[in-house]
Amino acid sequence: MKIGLIFAGQGAQYTGMGKELYDYSRKAKEVMDLAGEQVKEWCFEGTKEMLRQTHITQPCVYTVTMAAYEALMEEIEKQDASLFDSIEIEGLAGFSLGEYAALTAAGTINDIRKGMDIVTKRGTWMNEAGLGEDGVQRGSMVAAFGARQEILDCVADVKEDGILQGVNFNSPVQTVVAGDKESLERFKAEAKARKIKAIPLSVGTAFHSEMMEPAATKLQNLLMECELKAPNKRVYSDVTAEDMMKGTEEMDEAGVSRFIAELMGKQAMSPVYWQEIIENMVADGVECVIEIGPGTTLCGIVKKIKHDMITLNVQDMESLQHTVKTLIENK
């Protein structure tokens, strides 16, 4: 059975995430101990409002996601060798922040501590990029439900001179729109008039919009120094929805590292083509996706794209054990 691993992004966080895996899995505990006491306190006891702050959310979600990934690998290794041999991972993808976890699992980021440092700075810079002169966040996001083109037409009609963009193309019926708060208010009013349902998201700013340009530049400069490696498995890019290494066959190691740094810098201010990523996974033969990290949001979205896809997840003990049991039954 061909499997796609998909990694959770910002918005999936909740109080207590990762605690069961920390108490059960030696590997998960190692990851979360590396993150430090402050991150563990945020994950286990942080309030909803605290965990909504970008500079806190990103290191927390990345840490719990990598802990869940290591717990899954540890649990698979406990089984007989035939299970390990039967698992065919066709590719990996991560939703926004989750792409950093995918790149860590694929060896591009060769040290979890390096990954934690990257996403911590990413969260801080994205938070700063969203602040107005008064120090208050000037952006936000809403999930709009309807045909993609109708939503983009609505965006174009009310954008005026503000920041307003379709930034997450999640499924055939869901597009996330980001922008400054005034533009978003115009969008919500016009969407209501056009009978397009629009729900505000619990995020701190306008991710993946042009508002994030200052953060994208800083991030690219940081990643240029990280000696990024070519992934050891296919990673579907949020920016292109295709194998991120497509077109790099003739590059040397330095060229590959530079290419990935530029792509991931661009990712911070570019739309996420999640629907196309899942469609490309299906075209490549993926029959089952396993969502790694807090929540089950991505599994729900996948079902709206490919209703008969087998969806599993790993975020706590129950989901870990169910996933391993299902893999054993289907080996």
UniProtKB/TrEMBL annotation:
Active-site residues (renumbered): S96, H208
Span of domain Malonyl-CoA:ACP transacylase (MAT): 6-317
Entry GO terms, CC: cytosol
Organism: Aminipila terrae
Family annotation (Pfam families): Acyl_transf_1
Catalytic activity: holo-[ACP] + malonyl-CoA = malonyl-[ACP] + CoA
GO biological process: fatty acid biosynthetic process
Full protein name: Malonyl CoA-acyl carrier protein transacylase
SMART domains: PKS_AT
Matches recorded under InterPro entries: Ac_transferase_dom_sf, Acyl_transferase_dom, Acyl_Trfase/lysoPLipase, Mal-CoA-ACP_Trans/PKS_FabD, Malonyl_CoA-ACP_transAc, Malonyl_transacylase_ACP-bd
Family note: Belongs to the fabD family.
Protein keywords: Acyltransferase, Transferase
Origin organism lineage: Bacteria, Bacillati, Bacillota, Clostridia, Peptostreptococcales
GO molecular function list: [acyl-carrier-protein] S-malonyltransferase activity
Listed SUPFAM superfamilies: FabD/lysophospholipase-like (SSF52151), Probable ACP-binding domain of malonyl-CoA ACP transacylase (SSF55048)
Top-level taxon of the source organism: Bacteria
Enzyme Commission numbers on file: 2.3.1.39
